[in-house]
Structures are given as C-alpha cells and as structure tokens.
Q: What sequence folds into this?
C-alpha cells in the first residue's frame, strides 16, 4: 500500500477528539475527507490495482471513511451543544446587575403651564376653545373695533402674509382676541370660554420680548357680569396656578375692544407685575357679532388676555424669555 491508511486513520481520530470548536472540526473534515485529502487521492488510484487488491483496498478505505464520518458526527454534536450552552451563559440576564437608567423626557414649561391653565379654568366652568394662528385682518382687527389707522396694524408690528389675488388679508394673529369674535358669531350667551394659543409680533427680541409667545384669552358673557367677577376669576386662577394666595389690582388702561379697559397687576415679593390686559367687552364688539338689539336686557361681558410666558417666567424664576424658545437642552432638562 503506497500510503499508510492506518496511520492516517489514527491521526485523524486523535485530531477529531482534540478539536476545540465547530470551525476547527470543519477544517479537519476537509483535510481528511475532502476532495483533496490523501484518502480521496488514494481512492482514485484504487481502480488501477489488481482485482484482488482492488476489492481489499476499496473495502479498507470505505471502512475508514465510515469510521471517520461517525467520529466527526459525534464530535460535531458534542461541540455544538457546548457552544450553544456557552452562548446562553454569556447572554443570560443577570438580574442582580444594576439597571441601565432610562432617560425620561419632560414637558416644556409652557406646555405644563398651558395644562394648568386649562385645568383651572375648566374647574370654574370655562370651555376651552382654540383658533387659527393665521387670521384675517377682519378678525384680528376690524371686528375688535381696532381702527384702520391703529399702530398695531403697521408692518412694523405685525407679520402680514403675502396677499393673493381675490384672497382676504391674512396675518399671524397678534393676540388671541380674534377668537372672541369667531366664538360669538357661532354661539349665543350666556357662556364662558378661554382660548390658549400662540401669538406673533413683528418686533426686535430681547430678554422680555419674543416674536412669538402665548396668551390665554378669556371671555365671559352673561347678564350682570362686572369687573368684580373678572377680579374674582383672575384672583382664583392665579392663586391656583401659583399655589398660594395672590393679590391683584387693576390699572386704568386702553384697548379698542374693551370699555372700560384695565391692566392687571399681581403682587409678587412686594412688587406689582403686569400679567394681563382686560376689560368689559366694548359695545362695538357686540355689534360686530350682532348681539344686543337696543333694550334693557343687554348682554354684558368681560374679556382678558393673560401673558402665559410671563406666568412661566415668574413660576420658574426665568429672567430671559428667549430661553423658552431656544430649544437648549441644558435649559429644558431642568423641568
Ligand atoms: N388682546 C390684548 C393684547 O394682546 C389683551 C386683552 C385681551 C385686553 C382681552 C383686553 C381684553 O394685548
């Protein structure tokens, strides 16, 4: 015999037994049983032997091949079991290990404040309604008794939207008051509503001015509604919002859509801070929505517009309104 089959068999069996991984075993299988193995090469020469030798050699090679195959299969099964169990041990969850902290987000301080606003006014029987941020000049100005020549209509104060042929004049609402008109056009008194929402002013920004901010409009229409009711409602709202007894006072002021008009101040650490504009609904506003045919039972109402950003700044001691819109996580993660 030109090659020592016995020696190859012994060597192969030893190597199989010593194999440490499935990969390792696979290269041994290629080495001993593959097409280029010594055994395969030898088998190809068997056909050239004498008939007797051929039978004997063929039988011997087949016996060895079968024997090696069996050894490979056994070892392969053993290695695979070992590898699977090692993998499972490695990936097993260690329930005693300290947990990974999940990063929890939080609501923007303005969103938190708006939720409180809704909740508190709702508890006083106010409906919450919302209106469009892009308004017509009719709702933002005319119907609110704001004359054509009023300075707030100026290009310097208001973001106007480019007018298209046949379209109304659109702008980004400068206050939430237009929703007074939209609501009264569709509903009859008595009612009480608040309108939280974003408003826009075309002006230079600084620590106390932003081009966008939030207001809460309030409107209550009924018989015999007075400034005293307004004072009661605002005092209750602010006390709930700041979770302490709050003192407020009115200063005489002017808005085209209220008469009389007031500015609302709140006392804070001995100082009076302005937080809203308000007043009794002007007769021209009721006229614009076709309330009140002249008579003794006229509807009356109060309206107010609270600056939400101001409330948030007071609540959290924030000294620059721009922080609220800067999107800086170092700021926002504090809430
Ligand atoms: N709309 C006024 C403003 O933006 C505030 C206001 C609302 C005043 C309602 C009176 C009544 O300044």
A:
């Amino acid at each position: 015999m030109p090659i020592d089959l016995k020696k190859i068999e012994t060597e192969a069996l030893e190597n199989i037994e010593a194999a440490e991984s499935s990969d390792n075993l696979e290269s041994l299988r290629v080495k001993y049983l593959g097409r280029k193995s010594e055994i395969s090469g030898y088998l190809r020469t068997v056909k050239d032997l004498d008939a007797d030798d051929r039978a004997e050699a063929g039988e011997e090679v087949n016996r060895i091949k079968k024997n090696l195959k069996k050894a490979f299969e056994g070892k392969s099964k053993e290695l695979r079991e070992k590898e699977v169990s090692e993998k499972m041990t490695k990936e097993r969850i260690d329930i005693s290990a300290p947990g990974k902290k999940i990063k929890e987000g939080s609501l923007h301080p303005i969103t938190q404040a708006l939720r409180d606003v809704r909740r508190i006014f709702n508890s006083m029987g106010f409906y919450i309604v919302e209106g469009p941020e892009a308004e017509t000049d009719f709702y933002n100005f005319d119907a609110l008794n704001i004359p054509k020549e009023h300075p707030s209509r100026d290009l310097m104060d208001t973001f106007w939207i480019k007018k298209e042929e046949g379209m109304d004049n659109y702008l980004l609402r400068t206050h939430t008051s237009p929703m007074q008109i939209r609501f009264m056009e569709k509903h009859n008194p008595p009612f009480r509503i608040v309108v939280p929402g974003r408003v826009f002013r075309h002006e230079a920004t600084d620590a106390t001015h932003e081009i966008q901010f939030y207001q809460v409009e309030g409107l209550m229409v009924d018989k015999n509604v007075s400034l005293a009711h307004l004072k009661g409602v605002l005092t209750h709202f602010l006390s709930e919002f700041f979770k302490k007894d709050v003192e407020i006072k009115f200063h005489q002021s002017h808005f085209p859509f209220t008469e009389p008009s007031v500015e609302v101040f709140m006392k804070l650490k001995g100082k009076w801070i302005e937080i809203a504009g308000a007043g009794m609904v002007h007769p021209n506003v009721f006229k614009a929505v076709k309330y009140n045919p002249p008579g003794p039972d006229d509807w009356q109402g109060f309206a107010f517009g609270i600056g939400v950003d101001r409330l948030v700044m007071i609540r959290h001691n924030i000294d620059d309104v721009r922080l609220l819109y800067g999107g800086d996580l170092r700021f926002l993660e504090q809430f």
